[in-house]
Amino acid sequence: MYEDTIEKIKKIEHGFKETEHAANLIVSNHSETACFLLAKQYYQSEHYQVRSLAAFICGAISSRLYESLIFLKDEVALDTSWQVQEVLAQAFDRFCYDQGYENSLPIMDEWLNHSNPNVRRAVTEGLRIWTGRDYFRQNPDEAIKLLANLRDEPSEYVRKSVGNALKDISKKHGALVEAELQTWDVSPKAVQQVYKLARKHLDNRL
């Protein structure tokens, strides 16, 4: 099934739009259960492009089939391909969009406290720009608070995502981000890195 589509996807070298479109087409033509079975089959591929397709499918059905969200967290987050991790972030955002960002707060909290840095980054990166998302658009302080909780994040790659996400928010809500940053103890190097990234736009205004 979808052999021609899979062969085309294997050849994609840049971008994810075509893969996401293929995933949405599959989801529109099958039940959630059938889609999940296809996703698990595709995820066995040696080609990261096909595993990315699987992640997109899971993201598209995750608000209706919780098993697929668990699969993203427990299986896809272990993938060694950075491309698949980028899709994981997009898949998590799709879940939040479909379920509603406010309704998704408990899942965000769970993922942000997960032991796997890829799971934590799926939230911090997937929801960028945070204050462009419903709920956080009206409650920027909530987005800042969630991100600030990861200021001493052990993974550098997650710290960069956190700092850049706060920097994004500062473009429209500079006073709120500044107020949060003023409360930080920046003596630890990890916090210092997030702090410097977060206030980059603020410093450029001076």
Structure summary:
67% of the residues lie in helices and 0% in strands.
Q: Can you give the helix content as a percent range?
A: 55-70%
Instruction: Tell me the number of strands.
Output: 0
Spans with pLDDT under 50 lasting ≥5 residues? none
Which secondary-structure class do the elements indicate? Answer: mainly alpha
Any idea what the shape is? Answer: elongated
Distance between the termini: 58 Å
With helices defined by DSSP (H or I, 4 residues minimum), what is the helix count?
A: 13
CATH architecture grouping of the largest domain: Orthogonal Bundle
Biggest sheet record = none
CATH topology of the largest domain: Methyltransferase, Methionine Synthase (B12-binding Domains), Chain A, domain 1
> How many distinct domains?
2
Report Rg: 18 Å
Average pLDDT score:
96
Q: What is the CATH first-level class name of the largest domain?
A: Mainly Alpha
Q: Give the topology string: H per helix, E per strand.
A: HHHHHHHHHHHHH
Strand content: under 5%
